[in-house]
Amino acid sequence: MVDMTTPASFSALDPTCVLDALESVGLYSDGRLLALNSYENRVYQVGMEDGPPLVAKFYRPRRWSDAAILEEHAFVQELAEHEIPAVPALPLAGRGTLHHFEGFRFSVFKRQGGRAPELDDSATLEWLGRFIGRIHAVGAAQPFAERPALDIATFGEEPRDYLLAQDFVPADLREAYRSVTAQALDGVRRCFDRAGDVRRLRLHGDCHVGNVLWTDAGPHFVDFDDSRMGPAVQDLWMLLSGERGDMARQLADLLAGYEDFFEFNPRELYLIEALRTLRLIHYSAWLARRWDDPAFPAAFPWFNTQRYWQDRILELREQVALMDEPPLWPA
After folding, report:
1. CATH dotted code for 122-323
2. Architecture in CATH of 10-110
3. pTM, rounded to two decimals
């Protein structure tokens, strides 16, 4: 159950509040404050009077319970203790890793720089695969107790129902959207049936190129905010792009590294297009749920236009066809 005790609105999170929150846990800024690219939460790079800059993350009110946030922190700390390059939250002021200030909840992290990985390079993909395999080896050791699973109900049915119930879809497109999402979710269920009883484990959950920072020492994985239980392939398919042949080669490179550390069940390949379909539905609902946050209309002005929903209907029709094709296999 999410903690609902008088959360503050992000509109009250001004620079003074950010700096005062950090001072409440013994961190004193030199006044430099840089907002980083994050919409779900509010994330800042903060210059320190004594030492290198740190990153402060203020959690979106009502999204996660304290227990779910702390479970994510414990997972990332567990990865770091296994020398896997993830960035854990810092324990501060003898009060753990999650802190409260004037209705906000926040955590502090070491700053981790880097660049986007070159996903057209086989060696880079194999390197990424090795670390994802190591993440999953740790993730399989025990389940989450507080964080949800990635499944058809939470990523497909519930988001679809929300969009239709809130009248986001234009009236003249509602029936087409209702029909295509029904077909798409039927396709998702068939894919899960073909895959069978695949193993669920603790995942990064949102392992796309924007959440991997590359340095000369290799990758660092950041932003485990969407970490949850799910099939291993969820942390692999978002690194694939291009035509089918391109994705097959990329998948082969990823698995070449991955299987050095964790066994991959090939039946999960039946889930790639199903998981992509769920993400498409979930993403539209995510934008809709956040539409009263002023940052969202400014950043996503194309959302909820007639053209947007026409494109989503076409996109889901294409996914219905793709889910009936043979699964992608490594080249």
Report:
1. 1.10.510.10
2. 2-Layer Sandwich (3.30)
3. 0.94
